[in-house]
Amino acid sequence: MKKVSIGSKLKIESRGMFATSVFYAIVGIIFFVLLPMASFAPYLAIIGIFSLITAYGVFRKRVWAIWFVMILFLVATTFSGVMIYNILQIDALLGLGSIGYLILTWVFTIYALSKRKVFET
After folding, report:
1. 15-29, pLDDT tens digit by residue?
2. Domain locations in the chain as residue ranges
3. pTM of the predicted model, to two decimals?
4. Do the beta carbons of residue 79 and residue 47 sit within 8 Å?
5. What three-state secondary structure class fits 10?
6. In a 10 Å sphere around its CB, with 0-12 CB exposed, 13-18 middle and 19+ buried, how is residue 75 labelled?
7. Do the beta carbons of residue 52 and residue 25 sit within 8 Å?
8. What would the mean pLDDT of 54-69 be, rounded to a whole number?
9. Mean pLDDT for the chain?
């Protein structure tokens, strides 16, 4: 497998896994940014924490990361479904963001599951 060097210390073996970990890290940060705007809703904090933990686990190829990916898949699907159902008619931009989050979650979950052998090493 070809390694891609970013900087002098970070070597990335798989761009897909790197993209997956970046996705979960960005989602975690976004949920923490949204936390004060949503009156510190605990479910946003939980999704943010799980996303950051998942980003770390995927990046470091931890065995338990695949479980976190599956948990976030279920949580993100439920959260996005509720947001799309309740918000799309009121706030189209927020509804479209939820649709994008849902689609990207499915894409990166399918990718991580297809590469789950990487987590077993």
Report:
1. 999 999 999 999 999
2. 4-116
3. 0.84
4. yes
5. strand
6. middle
7. yes
8. 96
9. 89
